[in-house]
Amino acid sequence: MKDQLSRLKSFLNRDVTSFFTSSPKIEDNSPPLIEPQTGDSEVDSATSAPATIEPLPLLLNPAALEQIAFRSEILDWRDQAIVSLYQSANTSLSGFRTYIDSQLEDVSIWRRALPKPANRALSEPFNKLVRDSIRREMDLKTKNLMAIWSKRKVSDGSEFRIYDRWPDSQLSYLAKIGFKPDKRQLIFDRITDLVLGDHGISDMFSQQIIRISARIIDERPV
Amino acid sequence: MISKILFEIPATYDMAVKGGQLVQIGGLLKDATSGRIVAHLQESGLAHSLISNALLGSTSPAGLALSAVSQAVSAGTGIYTSIQVNQIKSMIEGLQSLQIATLGVSLLGVGVSAGSFIYMRKRFNAVDKRIDTLLETVINKFDDQRKSTLRSHLSQVTGLVQQANQAHTLANPTKEYSRVAECLAAQAAHFEGELTFLITTGGKVNHDLFWQLVQALMVCNSTRIDCRIRTNEFRNAITVALGVSESYEKLLGQITPISFGSVSVNSKQSVEAVKDIMDAAATKPYLLDYLHSQRVDGPTYLEQLEKEEDRPLLMLKVA
Predict the structure, then answer these.
(1) Which of B113, B141, B230, B257 could form a disulfide with B222 if both were Cys (CB 3.0 to 4.6 A apart)?
(2) Which residues of B touch A59 (CB under 8 A)?
(3) Total CB pairs under 8 A between chain A and B
(4) Mean pLDDT in runs of 10 for chain B (319 residues)?
(5) ipTM of the predicted structure?
(6) Is the whole-model pTM more than 0.90?
């Protein structure tokens, strides 16, 4: 009896947790703390390696990086084309001013009294010295673009050509100006406007470049 | 799975990048043949403390051209110690070796934003002051109502970044970080709207105002992603980063060398910096994805970067 009482007493005094020593441990499923380390690239072999836990699957597809690279390439092309366009425009404009100067010097006395309209005097040389020069630059840029596009081997990219759509009628803005020396500055200003101003040649080409690049980025090959 | 995150220095990859075996896109390097991501560029907190002074004086992305920064540092403005000068030069060399042209990528963190909220706030305060000056002296298209609204949003962002900075002292910082992130999403939307208006109303874009609004937008986006990382909400951080990348492409992709007027050295450099910003934003989700897949603890990762004292640029090697 005494023995049974003492056993009952020791049972009641027993630590509750000791009843659970044989039950399975609850596993901690929370991801372990991975501490980033800065230092040499060689793993410190002195530390013991923790248990390996499989990485989670990547959520993003790295193949999409190709799209980013392509976009970057097209934007680079766009910006280089615009810079080249304006450089070419400025250079040819500068050359054309020199030509105008030399022509104005040769205007005869009677032509100073009855001047030719400036557009008649300048249309042909303008097309040769300015427009053709800019067009050649744009043809080169078109080739560069097609090279970028065809690398993706989708099509030859001919649908993305840059065209000279600037109307000849724009030169009629010079019609009311007589081609004579005292109109030199006015002629220069108008020509500059036709080349570099809003709705001028450079503006026409740059808008095309921007539209083409936006379209290509939207339609980028998969 | 790797048990340690291994960082290397950019110079380790120099030869492979020059040789064409590795290709740099935004803030990462990938294998030219397999397309596999090899490493992510990651700035340490040291980079932000070095850059913040350099960028505070910059009123345009043109000042971010690495050559310009290098010259400014070499000229010796008294801001930097000789050790810091060497660290900045090392950082610039690191970026150049990866064929990155401007500090545009560094504006608010290459890789995971490692700039502490203190530097974020410092940067934003400079932006705030600059916009204030512009509103008073230069911008006459803004009516009083619009000025007042813009100032209000700027103040709110200042407050939110401050609150993010103080969140760690709370008993439950997670809730605070989440709240700040949500609020900053709304602020980002406002600045995005201002930028859209500025770019699309036609005519020349005011270069200075554009640049300040871009920085304000980037503070908001960078801080909100940072907050999500601090709460280990990597999936959300990835989603946010993808959305940010898309909105930058739509918005900043419109900027060309003639957006600010005539083509000039300034406008060309601005466009380069803008493209670097877009590319860095486009590749940020991939770094976040990698950290998530490796089960990296966000706060610990950020803390480690903030404590880095020797190297401003690190490469996170992909296992």
Answers:
(1) B113
(2) 235, 238, 289, 292-293
(3) 128
(4) 58 84 89 90 77 58 61 62 72 69 57 66 79 74 79 91 91 94 96 93 84 88 91 95 94 93 84 88 93 91 82 83
(5) 0.85
(6) no
